[in-house]
Structures are given as structure tokens and as C-alpha cells.
Design brief:
Blueprint lengths: L7 E2 L18 E10 L4 E9 L7 E8 L6 E2 L17 E10 L2 E9 L9 H8 L9 H4 L4 E7 L6 E5 L7 E6 L8 E7 L14 E6 L10 E5 L10 E3 L4 E3 L2 E9 L5 E8 L7 E4 L10 H4 L7 E9 L2 E8 L3 E8 H9 L4
Antiparallel strand pairs: 1-21, 2-3, 3-4, 4-5, 6-7, 7-8, 8-9, 10-11, 11-12, 12-13, 14-16, 15-16, 16-17, 17-18, 19-20, 20-21
């Protein structure tokens, strides 16, 4: 039996809170992507920010830290704004960052129409089905979530390349690997509709695909990566953080929704040459919602990381608490890897 290991919360949490001075982030700031630049000794957080209006538009903000613990906002303006046009016109959500060459590649969940304040039933119902003619594409008629791809060198100017996932699926938790594998790009994703006997899973789960082109994944064949296995994984699950390359395999974190609807975190180690093969998986959760800032938010009971960094041998896990705050948990990375390597696939 493998002894459990847990992530340790930073005593200064939350590391970012809603900012009443900026209308675009006055309600919530959460689910941050992270990038660590060891040369400049800097950590960047690209976080999801929500306005307090009933439309619940979401933006991406940017914060910077010299030590990985204490962050300052870079600007009073969003780093990436909604435009009201295109497939990502009303909301930008849950970014993940990888860097290849001089460019940062950001995957993000998005919608053309506003989502509405989902925790207020009468408001949510108003935005559930947009007023669309039947000829409109499915993702517009159903206000479904697509995953977009944006590229930048400086988090100031962007190329919004288009959607990364299939336009006929509500597909999110899409995460790129930071390098090609066997000459191809690799993507982990979580299509909500891929459930039932044809897919061998009762609940939405994580899949992996490979493509010669970054926008070729809708045409690629996907393989199931992980599905519900342990008692704390009762409903949907998805991978959270861009994989970190280690000598033992690709390390990443994933979430699963439990019987109590709480979001808990586990870890995976994937084969370096075939990341569709799970080498090790934590049978017990590494973190669960316990504090006020994880339980008393707009979603009651969620820890949701979108970025990690390894700083001086410690794994820094940057996560959203309660769909309202940005928070941090850490652990000794080598100890976690040794624990994970003792776990079954």
C-alpha cells in the first residue's frame, strides 16, 4: 500500500483576489496558467477574470512575481480581451501555457455568447440557449464551449489562431505538450459528449491525440487516456496542467469530481515516447477543497490548477479556489515523483 502524499497550501493564500477597481475583474480571479522563467527569476500568472455583470464575461489578466509566492498585476487592462466577435467573443476561460521556441502557446476555453451567472438559476436560464436561427452552427445554438489557441511573444499582442478542438463538440481541458513527440504535436482534451457504450465510459474523461499541425486535432484520432477508477472520481474528470518532462516520464495533474461534487486533484506519469500510456497514477487524491476560499466561492468546493512550476526543487501548483480566487500549494517535487513512481498505472 502506497502511503498518501498531499500538497501543502501557502499560508498567504489567496495570492490574487477580485479587484473592485477594475470592472473586468471585480467579481472573480481564478484558474491561473503559469510560466516560470528561471533566467529572469520570474513567474507569470495568466488568470481568468470575471466581471460582476449578469453576462459573466471572462477575460485573461496577467500578474508577475519574483519569488513565486507574491504577485502584482501587470496592468489595469486585460492581457487578452473579449471582442464580441468570433468563436471566443464573450468569454475566455481556464488558460494553459506552453512555450516552444520564442512563442508562448495558450489554450483556453471560450464561448461566443455570454455564459451568465451560473450559480443564480434564474440568471443562468436566461443565457442557457441563445436566440439563434436553426441554421446557425451547433456550438452557437447550444452556447457550447470550444477550445481556442492563441500565440504571443510578450502577452501584449496576440495571434488568435482559431479553435483547437472539434466545433461539433463541447471540448475543454485541452492541454498541449511543450514539444513534439515522434515528430507530432500532442494534445490532451476532454469532450463532454464522448460518453456511453460507444466510448467505454459513463462520464466525460481525458483523451489524447496527435497531429502534424496545431490546428489538425479535430481531424486526428483520439485515444482514451484515463477515466474514472477510484472512489473519489465519481463523475467527470480532466487533465489540468501542461506536462512537465522528467527522466521518469511526463508529469501532470488531473482533477475528478467526487460523489460530493467536490473537485479533487491527482497526478499522472506518462510514457515519454508514448504519452498515451499511463505509467503511474495516484490512487488517492493529492488535494481536496478544505478552506473557505475553496468552498465559499461561486462553485462550492473546487481546487482547479491550470499551471505549475518547479522552483528550487519544489513543485508550485497555481490553482483556482471556489471559482473566485487564485491560490498556491507546493510540495517537494522529487518526493512527489518518488511517491508517484510507486503507484500503479
Amino acid at each position: 500500500m502506497v502511503a498518501p502524499i498531499k500538497l501543502e497550501r501557502f499560508a498567504g493564500n489567496p495570492i490574487l483576489s477580485p479587484n473592485p477597481r477594475n470592472a473586468w475583474e471585480d467579481l472573480a480571479v481564478f484558474n491561473p496558467a503559469a510560466w516560470h522563467d528561471p533566467k529572469n527569476k520570474e513567474v507569470l500568472l495568466l488568470y481568468r477574470a470575471a466581471e460582476s455583470g449578469p453576462e459573466y464575461k471572462c477575460y485573461l489578466g496577467l500578474a508577475r512575481s519574483r519569488d513565486g509566492y507574491r504577485f502584482e498585476r501587470v496592468s489595469d487592462r486585460p492581457a487578452m480581451d473579449v471582442t464580441g466577435e468570433g468563436f471566443d467573443g464573450a468569454t475566455l476561460q481556464d488558460p494553459r501555457i506552453v512555450k516552444m521556441g520564442d512563442w508562448f502557446y495558450v489554450t483556453y476555453a471560450c464561448r461566443h455568447y455570454p455564459f451568465g451567472q451560473f450559480w443564480i438559476p434564474e440568471v443562468r436560464q436566461r443565457y442557457l440557449t441563445p436566440d439563434c436561427p436553426p441554421e446557425f452552427p451547433r456550438y452557437l445554438r447550444q452556447n457550447a464551449t470550444l477550445t481556442g489557441l492563441a500565440m504571443t511573444r510578450d502577452f501584449k499582442s496576440w495571434i488568435r489562431a482559431g479553435w483547437l478542438t472539434h466545433p461539433l463538440l463541447d471540448d475543454r481541458d485541452a492541454i498541449l505538450f511543450p514539444e513534439k513527440i515522434n515528430g507530432q504535436f500532442a494534445l490532451i482534451h476532454r469532450p463532454l459528449e464522448w460518453v456511453g457504450p460507444d466510448y467505454g465510459t459513463e462520464h466525460a474523461c481525458a483523451w489524447i491525440a496527435f497531429s502534424d499541425d496545431l490546428l489538425g486535432f479535430p481531424f486526428a484520432r483520439s485515444r482514451k487516456l484515463i477515466q474514472n477508477k477510484y472512489p473519489w472520481e465519481a463523475f467527470k474528470l480532466g487533465v489540468n496542467t501542461p506536462p512537465i518532462k522528467t527522466p521518469h516520464g511526463w508529469f501532470t495533474l488531473y482533477h475528478a469530481v467526487g460523489p460530493d461534487k467536490f473537485y479533487r486533484l491527482g497526478a499522472l506519469l506518462l510514457d515519454l515516447n508514448d504519452p498515451g500510456r499511463v505509467l503511474h497514477r495516484t490512487p488517492d487524491w493529492l488535494m481536496q477543497p478544505e478552506t473557505d476560499y475553496e468552498i465559499e466561492g461561486f462553485y462550492r468546493g473546487v481546487c482547479f490548477p491550470c499551471g505549475t512550476a518547479v522552483i528550487d526543487g519544489r513543485l508550485f501548483v497555481y490553482y483556482g479556489g471556489g471559482d473566485k480566487y487564485c491560490a498556491l500549494a507546493t510540495c517537494d517535487f522529487e518526493a512527489l515523483l518518488n511517491h508517484l513512481r510507486a503507484c500503479p498505472p
